[in-house]
């Protein structure tokens, strides 16, 4: 059963990844993700349905527009593949469980927000703010069906706690990060808090750790200084996903080491 869920989730991830390419390009520009249909930015010709198959179409077209031969960035199939892989890993983690849709949504916004923050150094409210409602609605499903009301309460408190923690950080040290990071922290706190307080702490720590290591590597390579700003959203998202996927095992291992 788990293998079937993983395969279906991966296939679904390919399709979602294709849509995320549209989201990544249009949302930062304030454009609709529904209309107009996808088209070549050079010749403006609409993309045919047969040329809109994730990954495969790019390979068959050899990375070029069918009508004007304009190169198509390999980033498009890579986003589709990354989404499929992330969906498969999340499905492997949760299996056929009512939690799965909520964490597949987290995987989708992880890909979209990571790419957008890298591109434009911004985490759009159009994605982040609705994610509060989406997360709570999707987690309400297992809360109702599996009687996990305590977990849902902890998710709400976790979201509030992580939001408050990040808000305190920018209050103490203005300019250290953007308010978009604070708003994203609340969303991630909901997902991490649902799993456990330990997972929430691990996810927050992992984000800081990954961002710090990246900053140190850039400084050692001479590509950044102490005051250089880097997009922090991708590291928050990566840390959260690490905690979601393996956090419970790491927390249990840590407790075993210290004898709790």
UniProtKB/TrEMBL annotation:
Membrane topology category: Multi-pass membrane protein
The organism's place on the tree of life at top rank: Bacteria
Residue intervals of the Prepilin peptidase A24 N-terminal domain: 12-94
Catalytic activity field: Typically cleaves a -Gly-|-Phe- bond to release an N-terminal, basic peptide of 5-8 residues from type IV prepilin, and then N-methylates the new N-terminal amino group, the methyl donor being S-adenosyl-L-methionine
Domain Prepilin type IV endopeptidase peptidase: 105-216
Gene Ontology molecular function terms on file: hydrolase activity
Transmembrane segments: 6-25, 76-96, 102-120, 127-145, 151-172, 184-210, 230-251
Keywords assigned by UniProt, alphabetized: Cell inner membrane, Cell membrane, Hydrolase, Membrane, Methyltransferase, Multifunctional enzyme, Protease, Transferase, Transmembrane, Transmembrane helix
UniProt EC number: 2.1.1.-, 3.4.23.43
InterPro entries: Peptidase_A24A_bac (IPR014032), Prepilin_IV_endopep_pep (IPR000045), Prepilin_pept_A24_N (IPR010627), Prepilin_peptidase/N-MTase (IPR050882)
Pfam families the UniProt entry points to: A24_N_bact, Peptidase_A24
Entry's localization field: Cell inner membrane; Cell membrane
Role summary: Plays an essential role in type IV pili and type II pseudopili formation by proteolytically removing the leader sequence from substrate proteins and subsequently monomethylating the alpha-amino group of the newly exposed N-terminal phenylalanine.
Family the entry assigns: Belongs to the peptidase A24 family.
Stated name of the protein: Prepilin leader peptidase/N-methyltransferase
Organism of this sequence: Angustibacter luteus
């Amino acid at each position: 059963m788990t293998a079937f869920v993983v395969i279906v989730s991966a296939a679904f991830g390919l399709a979602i990844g294709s849509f995320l390419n549209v989201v990544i390009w249009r949302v930062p520009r304030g454009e609709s993700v529904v209309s107009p249909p996808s088209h070549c930015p050079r010749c403006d010709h609409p993309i045919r349905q047969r040329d809109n198959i994730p990954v495969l179409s790019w390979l068959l077209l050899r990375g070029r527009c069918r009508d004007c031969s304009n190169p198509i960035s390999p980033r498009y199939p890579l986003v589709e593949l990354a989404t499929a892989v992330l969906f498969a890993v999340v499905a492997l983690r949760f299996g056929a469980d009512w939690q799965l849709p909520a964490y597949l949504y987290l995987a989708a916004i992880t890909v979209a927000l990571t790419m957008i923050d890298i591109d434009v150094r911004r985490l759009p409210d159009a994605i982040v703010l609705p994610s509060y409602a989406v997360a709570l609605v999707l987690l309400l499903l297992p809360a109702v069906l599996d009687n996990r009301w305590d977990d849902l309460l902890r998710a709400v408190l976790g979201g509030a706690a992580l939001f408050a923690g990040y808000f305190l950080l920018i209050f103490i040290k203005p300019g250290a990060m953007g308010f978009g990071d604070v708003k994203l922290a609340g969303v991630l706190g909901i997902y991490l808090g649902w799993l456990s307080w330990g997972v929430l702490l691990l996810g927050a720590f992992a984000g800081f750790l990954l961002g710090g290591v990246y900053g140190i590597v850039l400084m050692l390579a001479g590509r950044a200084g102490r005051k250089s700003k880097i997009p922090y959203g991708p590291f928050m998202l990566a840390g959260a996903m690490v905690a979601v996927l393996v956090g419970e095992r790491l927390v249990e291992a840590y407790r075993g080491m210290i004898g709790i």
